[in-house]
Amino acid sequence: MKIPGAEFALIDCYFTAQDVRRSDVALGIGDDCALLVPPVGQQLAATVDTLVADVHFFAAADPEGLGHKALAVNLSDLAAMGATPAWATLALTLPKADEKWLGAFCRGLFALANRYDVQLIGGDTTRGPVTVITIQAHGFAPPDRALRRDGARPGDCVYVTGTLGDAGLALAVGFGEATVADKDAEYLRLRLERPEPRIAQGLALRGVANAAIDVSDGLAQDLGHILERSGVGARLDVEQLPLSPVLLASLDRQAAITTALASGDDYELCFTVPSEQVERLERLAVNWDCRCTPIGVITAEPGLRLLQADGSAFRLEQLGYDHFG
Amino acid sequence: MKIPGAEFALIDCYFTAQDVRRSDVALGIGDDCALLVPPVGQQLAATVDTLVADVHFFAAADPEGLGHKALAVNLSDLAAMGATPAWATLALTLPKADEKWLGAFCRGLFALANRYDVQLIGGDTTRGPVTVITIQAHGFAPPDRALRRDGARPGDCVYVTGTLGDAGLALAVGFGEATVADKDAEYLRLRLERPEPRIAQGLALRGVANAAIDVSDGLAQDLGHILERSGVGARLDVEQLPLSPVLLASLDRQAAITTALASGDDYELCFTVPSEQVERLERLAVNWDCRCTPIGVITAEPGLRLLQADGSAFRLEQLGYDHFG
Fold first, then answer.
1. Which of A160, B164, B226, B325 could bridge B260 with an S-S bond, Cβ 3.0-4.6 Å?
2. What's the complex ipTM?
3. Least confident window among A4-18, A112-126, A262-276, B9-23
4. If we measure between CA atoms, which residue out of A202, A225, A222, A227 comes closest to residue A297?
5. In this structure, which topology does domain B157-307 adopt according to CATH?
6. Which of residues 219-258 of A touch B (CB under 8 A)?
7. How many CB pairs under 8 A join A and B?
8. Distance from CA of A309 to the nearest CA of B (A)
9. Which fold has domain A6-141?
10. DSSP category for residue B4
């Protein structure tokens, strides 16, 4: 029922043209399975994420950026686990075999893969009415050193990398629901289309953070997963949320904070650090290529409380825009 | 950009309700990654396959059968590698969150997973205009014992498990291009919708077969991959192809052989056995729950030659029906 030959022709042309050749890949693309040699004494971290055209990205989006992002969102999950990236598979459903699109997609995918020494070890290319991209990524972490969601403890300081809300604003601009100055458009586009997985940060947080998650669905929701799995609550100071100059220049205070809390696609790390590790973290973070901002504290009392500078509660309304719903 | 909450609600309800709890799964569904403990001294086999509605299956197909088949096609790849199944991930794109559909899909998926002690260790559920099912399966094989496509040698005997062409005929019936007796319809439907991965056979072939592949795109094409990767050819006796009584009763000889050679979705194993292992294979196969049929020989001369009983060439025409193209 597959298109005879087409699947293989696509794979041969594009997906085997990668520079990375890892020594722990005994057999790569081209057989019924890949054969891999996991490192002794490490756990294997595995994650899978799907991007669907006109749900997770605009169908006309730049394919090079899409290749980057499809892998980046998976590497972001490895980062949130404190895992070292290693292997990926790609299941790609396409309306047609567009060579120009495929070439650009692979450029974006492999440019990011090469930077993190990730080898594409398998895939399945199928025809379908809409573009669907599923990547599974694998990495390694030492036993009991991985950053889980269930390790947050009362008194932990809550941190977040980078800035929040830029991708949400970029999306609103894309839908014509917000406007930004011309000079800021490129910055925003890159924040949405080229998220940078915080791999180095995730590795540095091993033995430092009690819990971590990547912010893909909005800080409030993703931090909520840590709280739920850890059986704790949190109090955030919304004035401390790291906001980019572009976000601050484009939205009023209320909307900027709401976007930072509730919009998705930022792919920053949110993590909790016990007080005795805070000094160590602050020393580590000096050398990071992104901000590292304390935004609140884990509490024994369940629930997420959002406080303003004067101690009053910040009311998190539903975002005004509801995309791709 | 995801539908807030919906993804998690779906996963919680259905995909964590599995009986299998493997001791080598340190952390299953519910975190950024699963954490796995691969067995020391084994290679990890990984494969990924996608099924797209109205490309690989009818959108109205029985969801329980679909759950079975989506996993079965991946387990079939593990079987063709001689690997022991262990873990799977599921990336599921659905037009709507249909609880009845999801429940039946999971029943089919987990019934098969439980039989082979496969634990679902991760997933991503997304909304999209069409159902797309991507499963990645992992298994284990001892180093240098896996069944690759590139090991066939001249003089090897070519074998195939089960019978060929039943799924192709079932598909033709589904499209109204062929008819079968009422009493045969159920047999054919099961052959298409409930393929049985030949896991036991794949494991038994370790150290016996030189090369193996699973027949998903038709014997001629899939055996062709072995020939190409091994740098050899093959001569098949088309009269020896294992055909079911239903196929023989429904099609004339020419069409039956053509269907056996060129139609897909059979998920039988095709493998090559050196002459000194043939006796051992024949002893092993006595206990199999499927046929095991010698159909030809590997040759030093490249190419696939199809011979009839009188020594004349069998002309493999394109199948009369070209589905989902």
1. B164
2. 0.94
3. A4-18
4. A227
5. Phosphoribosyl-aminoimidazole Synthetase; Chain A, domain 2 (3.90.650)
6. 221, 225, 229
7. 221
8. 28
9. 60s Ribosomal Protein L30; Chain: A; (3.30.1330)
10. T
